[in-house]
Write a structure and sequence with these properties.
By secondary structure, this protein is of the alpha+beta class. It has a single domain, classed as HIT family, subunit A, CATH 3.30.428. Helix content is about 20%, strand content about 20%. It has two helices and five strands. The longest helix is centred in the middle third of the chain and has 17 residues. The termini are far apart. It binds guanosine-5'-monophosphate and zinc ion (ZN). Guanosine-5'-monophosphate binds next to strand 2.
Length: about 120
Amino acid sequence: MDCLFCKIIEGDLPSTKVLENDKVLVFQNINPEAPVHVLVIPKKHIASMNDIEDEDLLLIGEMHKAAKEAAAKLGIDESGYRLINNCGKDGMQTVFHLHYHLMGGKRLGALTGISPEHA
Ligand code: 5GP
Ligand code: ZN
């Protein structure tokens, strides 16, 4: 499958791993937008939030657990963080393998991208 993150999982492309188990991989974002910015991905290829099936629900829980553990490992559990999913065109998703952005290490500010008329 021609998927960037599947290639990272397979080791065909390099990555800086933060945490790994048999279901989930957490690795450094190549283009960080915060002092801490890692990506949490399932080892199973799921293209986006829209493609999550009932059989994946435990796996989504595993992603949250890995995110929590990565936050502690990276020292931002006490200071706080965000877990973000971008889905589809309006969500500005660019890699179509489900992932959470785990971001922290500074005060991130209010959520952006919400126009005043929709706030
Ligand atoms: P999206 O825009 O789909 O929510 O997020 C994709 C993320 O993957 C971006 O933040 C981008 O910096 C990151 N990314 C894209 N290509 C690579 C890569 O080859 N290696 C790593 N580590 N991150 C990548
Ligand atoms: Zn994939």
